[in-house]
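Bench notes, afternoon.
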Amino acid sequence: MPKQKGQSFLHGAIILSAATIIVKLIGALFKLPLFNLLGGDGMGYFGTAYNLFNPIYALAISGFPVAVSKLVSEQIALRRFRDVRRILTVSKYLFIGSGLIGFLIIFFGAGPFVKLIDNPGSYLAVVAIAPSIFFCCIMSIYRGYYVGMSNMYPTAISQVIEAVVKLICGLGFAWGAMRWCMGQYETTGRIMGQVVPSIEQAQSVACAYGAAGAVLGMTVSTFVGAVYLWARHKRRGDGITQADLMASPVADSTKNHFKRLVMIAIPVCLSAVVVNLTSLIDLMSLMNRVGAALESNAQAILQMYEGLIPQGKQLSEIPNYLYGSYQCAITLFNLVPTLTSTFGVSALPAVASAWALKNRELVRKNVESVIRITCLIAIPAGIGLCVLSEPILLLIYSARPQEAMIAAPILRIMGLAVIFVAVTTPVNSMLQGVGQVFLAVKLMLIGGALKLGINYFAVAIPELNIQGAPLGTLACYVFIAVAGIAFLCNRCQISLDMKSVFVKPLVAAIFCGAGAWGAYGLLQRINALPQSVCTVLAIGVAGVVYLLVLFLIKGISKEDINMLPNGEKLAQLLEKHKLIR
């Protein structure tokens, strides 16, 4: 093995999860001031580009690295270190070329795209996101390579660097663009030569430039992340010694590695894009279908959101405003799956190695552990978002209460969907690890068709409008998660311990949700406590209740604790008090 020792599945997952938590905290420092700066209109433009960026980012950061890491982990398990180096070389040619093509498609396709979704104000933001695909592809080469070697530190560090740069540049560029536009209006009554009749319209026009500035900051962050990973590999290498290379068999041909990489990369990348299919479907359909609902019965929608839609807003502007408000719920909805996706990234080399060695028992242990730990996090988080949707949104978006109130019923359903979305990503990664790369794509396409059908019909109903979108998301991911687990077990010829994997986390999560609901209701009756304090305390009570119930019913296993860094001592302590099985 290379001289730097690889991490276990859970150790690697903890490294990536810690980085993800830091990234999400930094992301909150980015998104919350940005929302307060841009409002519903600006976030509609930003959300258009961002939801186009998400599948691109998933393609390059989740899709391409999976293909590289799968091949690298298999070759390391077989001690074919010359092949490992050759895979790195081949991936550079393939992914840099793909990045250039992707950049050109997004850059020159921005105009037709914004016309297609009927949101021309988002044009600048979409153009600003185009270079990011090239830089993401460069990052994907090194991230996949190191993950395949079970070294999660380069990926984790690059994610944090990327988030910090996005925070600084994104907010700085957005604020600067808004101030520059409003300065033009105050001086000349125009913005970029366009006559603007009122300050409200000036702010709306300025929001488009502010959104583009925020997106440009994201693009700069991908450039810095790519430079860091390239420089790190140049300076520190990969840990493979000359002795490792000398003892390794002769490498397979470049042509064969290229073919294998393409054969794995194409379906894996399709799967990564399809994982973000719901965002793309929302982007392509929501504003159009809300527009259809307004044409059908505008009065019903205006009454539904009475006091929540700013006065003086034209009917043609309402779809973008509701879509921007919808982003409040989407931001929270994405938190848990982003965290649990790290389990899939970390589990893939472990599952792929066990599969390559034909060790079925090790495959079963890895699969069961990944799904159980995912459920331990996802189920209570999803139920908590469902129960406390309104107070959580009002806590986070206190400066934009109207948008938060529009998003609250959306998040209530999205909370339940979170559970299934969180399970989907690691299950798809493990399907890819055992050679079922096309199956994950097929399941996501079927789920996406469900989502599209429900969006098309439900969102066009005036009484539902944008509130119908989460129904499609829930149906989509229930199908994908259940079918994915069934196919994974069948492929590996294993059966899961249903009680430990699903039932115990669900029981503890139900008590967690009840604790959150009860604590918030009781705390609200204390007049001296502000709503924000009630929300935070209720979340804290829910967390304590969840952990107590989880330990009482022995929902955490000794194996889970042992996979933690230096987890043996903690496992002995918990076992001594009979808190783990």
